[in-house]
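User: Could you write out the 3D structure of this protein bound to BV8? I've included everything you need below.
Assistant: Certainly. Input first, then the structure.
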Amino acid sequence: MAPMTAKASPRIVVLTGAGISRESGLATFREPGGVWDRVNLEDVATPEAFRRDPDFVHSFYNARRAQLTDGSVRPNAAHTALARLARERHGEVLVITQNIDDLHDRAGQDPLIHMHGELLRAICTACRERRAWHGELTTETPCPACGTAGTLRPDVVWFGEMPLDVERILAALHACETFVAVGTSAAVQPAASFVHEARSAGARCVEVNLEPSEATPAFHDARHGPATELVPTFVAELLGERG
Ligand code: BV8
């Protein structure tokens, strides 16, 4: 029996963005008709916006939460392929998502880091208790833990706020053999710099995206097309099921 060793670093690190959920019916952010075409991020995705007009920010996230929980949105073949990869290469794969939807979770992705938080969770700004939250939030909603009304907010990382698990992410990027970015425009920091962290540490970097992104030149290999076609194919390659 081999001696138990500290949990090895993942050999394959995957960063996903809104593009992986596009074929499940969720809008991306920066494409024509995307989320930031319909509302200014400064009005809904910053702490200042929430202080200025909490009702408007709640309505923005309540609408996205309702879409995620009304049964119309399900994980797609790209989500299920990544979950299979992590199962079959147990302990060797880490998925980091910028997305706040729960499609990776529903596909069974484990381990999974939601670096920008989760739409289906709420946090109380008074007692800091966080919990699953599938319904509406308003400025009147009382915190179930401390009873204070109006202190609950979506448990997501807004612009200007610290992303989650950054230390753990950087450690994984510096130790992995393969870094894959799926469905991200590389427009948001620090996620957009992850390819440079991985590449400088010697990882092979692969971009899987509908079209070239701002970061494409930093990748050794770039595959452009829909995630539901390219990700299952790439996973089969990684599992040695195809050349
Ligand atoms: C931070 C949660 C310090 C909310 C999000 C001034 C003040 C303060 C900070 C800054 C500043 N100026 C710049 C910054 C940094 C800022 C930033 O990057 N701003 C940008 C706009 C310039 N970043 C931050 O504030 C971050 N915090 O910096 O703290 C720090 C720094 C380092 C270390 C520690 C701390 C916090 C950023 C998090 C903001 N929250 N979301 C919500 O969702 O409502 S970001 C938001 O953008 C989403 O999370 C989204 O996922 C993310 C990135 O976008 P993408 O996922 O890439 O989506 P996008 O639409 O852009 O692209 C989709 C891609 O998919 C496209 O390329 C498309 O071609 C492709 N695609 C489409 N269809 C398909 C497809 N691909 C495959 N198949 C398909 N079918």
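Residues 177 and 203 are 4 Å apart (CA to CA).
User: Perfect, thank you.
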